[in-house]
Design a protein that fits this description.
- The structure is a single chain.
- The protein is mainly beta.
- The chain is built from one helix and 18 strands.
- The chain has an 18-stranded mixed beta sheet that branches.
- InterPro entries: 5peptide_repeat, Pentapeptide-BTB/POZ_domain.
């Protein structure tokens, strides 16, 4: 694994195109309408939730596979083992949620803010994330294999061993966040801006950083591993 320190203000580019300028991510602009408190029972498969607030609800082990959440807020909810496979989260805000093993595989998140989450082993493989802001909190072992991320910002959060294997990242930014032991194996990066990562640890997929932008300090830290990846011997 390769680990670098704080991202600097340098403009070094890792195979991002000579003279090109990285395209910034478009952040979500979520404006929730007045919400109705959710007064139903558990989640339902293929349920339709529009303009409701889930506050301090324990949704552990419930099945909301295929459900649609539109203009919703989830605040301080528990999602241990919650099944949201194929769910659609649209124009919604999730604040202070926590859970282990939450299943969002092949789901769609569009115009979503995820704030101060504490999650572990979250399954988002095959998911589509578009205009998503993940701010604050800590996410361990995030599975984004084969996912598609477009206009996604990770800001002020801690990501421990995130798996981007085979994922497509387009206009993805890491801002003031720690990225520990990330795996980019077989990933495709376009305008992925890693310069703002306060810590950047790469466990796999160094050869897939074409299309990423890194700082000068990060480049220097990565240089030995990049030389080894290319088969270059460095001797004095």
């Amino acid at each position: 694994m390769v680990r670098t320190g704080a991202g600097g203000g340098g403009r070094a580019r890792a195979a991002a195109g000579s003279g090109s300028r990285v395209k910034g991510a478009r952040r979500p602009e979520v404006r929730l309408p007045p919400l109705e408190p959710y007064d139903g029972g558990g989640l339902e498969p293929d349920g339709d939730y529009d303009g409701v607030e889930f506050r301090e609800r324990d949704l552990s082990g419930q099945d909301g596979g295929g459900a649609r959440f539109m203009d919703c807020a989830l605040s301080a909810c528990v999602l241990d083992g919650t099944r949201l496979h194929h769910a659609r989260l649209l124009d919604s805000v999730l604040t202070g949620i926590r859970g282990v093993g939450t299943n969002l595989a092949e789901s769609t998140l569009r115009d979503v803010e995820l704030v101060d989450a504490r999650l572990g082993g979250t399954q988002l493989h095959g998911a589509v994330l578009e205009r998503v802001l993940i701010r604050g909190g800590k996410i361990d072992y995030l599975n984004l294999r084969q996912a598609r991320l477009r206009d996604v910002v990770f800001e002020g959060c801690v990501l421990v061993e995130p798996d981007f294997g085979g994922a497509r990242l387009e206009r993805v930014e890491f801002v003031d966040c720690a990225v520990k032991s990330a795996d980019f194996t077989a990933a495709t990066l376009t305008d992925a801006d890693l310069r703002g990562a306060t810590e950047l640890g790469i466990a796999g997929g160094l050869d897939r950083l074409s299309g990423a932008v890194i700082s000068t300090a990060q480049l220097l830290d990565l240089a030995p591993a990049l030389a080894a990846e290319l088969g270059i011997r460095v001797e004095d």
